[in-house]
């Protein structure tokens, strides 16, 4: 039951195979293999230091693994640059919210859409008509998204002034403007007030129903239980157990990994 | 007195061009460039050497292109470095340029400098008399640079640069090619610095390596800090204020007779320092805020809110 990717690979959206990453003598990832499947909300849990965030960084090109491969819909993207992942349909949020503080909430969203012609030096000056049309279309999408996450009233505020939970929602809304197939959330519940957490759960469920797949690193077991169809438990840089939330929390090895009981 | 004011205004124009360029690189994109003077010097020498051969306008274009090429080259090598290391590399570049100019007399005439650089609109200038024609030329160049760079700052390009300044990792996760955007910002800034150098050479008609010391870089940073990082309007005010402080304090000797000229010239730099410190305490955001895209700009149906 702990074998990686027991289900059919036809459903595999993002897969890591035998990924290893060492920082000095410390192996953050040590031959980790697992799969995020299309259409699912997959949880990644495990005790602190299990390598969850490093794995997320490997899955989005921010960290290049020493060994192993990353496959997106079967295509090898191990060496792709971080900005390529967004183009391939993989978006992510960050554990410690990294809002672009000097940009307004609205600008944070307008930044995200792909293929903006106004980002070229010459086009920014002489292609104004074209990029302004794009900007107007993006603005409507941004407005709809901000209304959806309840941040539209703060649209013209500097994003640095938002609360922790609002920043997480902004982070998610920004990722959505990339129109991704897969969103990787790094601890979406951390530091979020209970009402906003419910908001987050509702939003992720809605988006999943609309066809977006999710990968979710989280310590809040309530959130994981509420959201995840499938859970991978990691420990010491490897996949320990996979299964439904109900199955894995009853697994003896998982309890041991969390409590540190010698096997 | 009028002639003196015209001179000051032209020098402000040169400083404003350099400042506008740095405001794109550092103010907007967060790239520390301590080698500003090197790019200005490349522009000045290219203009000085080429203007007699090919005319002032093509020479100025070459100045911009050459300085942009050096900027892009340096950026390709060094822009992956963290902020502090980029600062060190650019300081090194500025010094290398100055030392090459000083020690390669076959090209630059070394410490003796280059004299008799032709001025644009020289015939017209002589007919009118004084530097008035050149002043109009300089102001027009600043206006052109301002419109260009302000247009960039308000475009998606400028917004992406501001995002990179705030957090490059997040910006790359949002699908922006951070490396390419940084190189572009550095190259465009370099081009404007080259033009500033050419204007400097055309105005003084004589250049030597002593004019291109790191103080030029320092003035550019002062102007950007005073004006507010990212704001081109603020930059123009900042560059004007810095030059006004620098030049205005010359007249202190008329009012303060107890201090002699040498001591006063040392005091002047101190006064500028005090001015900047006061500004940072009283108005840390600078004189003008950087431009933002409001919802009401793109969503016309939205009622403007306070």
UniProtKB/TrEMBL annotation, chain A:
CDD domains per record: ABC_Mj1267_LivG_branched
InterPro entries in UniProt: AAA+_ATPase (IPR003593), ABC_AA/LPS_Transport (IPR051120), ABC_transporter-like_ATP-bd (IPR003439), ABC_transporter-like_CS (IPR017871), P-loop_NTPase (IPR027417)
GO cellular component annotations of the record: plasma membrane
Keywords, alphabetical: ATP-binding, Nucleotide-binding, Transport
PANTHER family to which the protein is assigned, alphabetical: CONSERVED COMPONENT OF ABC TRANSPORTER FOR NATURAL AMINO ACIDS, CONSERVED COMPONENT OF ABC TRANSPORTER FOR NATURAL AMINO ACIDS-RELATED
Protein family membership: Belongs to the ABC transporter superfamily.
Name of this protein: ABC transporter ATP-binding protein
Originating organism: Hansschlegelia plantiphila
UniProtKB/TrEMBL annotation, chain B:
Keyword Transmembrane (UniProt): yes
Protein location: Cell membrane
Database matches in InterPro entries: ABC_transp_permease (IPR001851), LivM-like (IPR043428)
Keyword annotations: Cell membrane, Membrane, Transmembrane, Transmembrane helix
Any one GO CC term of the record: plasma membrane
Recorded topology in the membrane: Multi-pass membrane protein
Single GO MF descriptor: branched-chain amino acid transmembrane transporter activity
Pfam families: BPD_transp_2
Primary location: membrane
Membrane-spanning parts: 6-24, 31-50, 56-78, 85-102, 132-153, 185-203, 233-252, 264-282
Protein name: Branched-chain amino acid ABC transporter permease
Source organism phylogeny: Bacteria, Pseudomonadati, Pseudomonadota, Alphaproteobacteria, Hyphomicrobiales
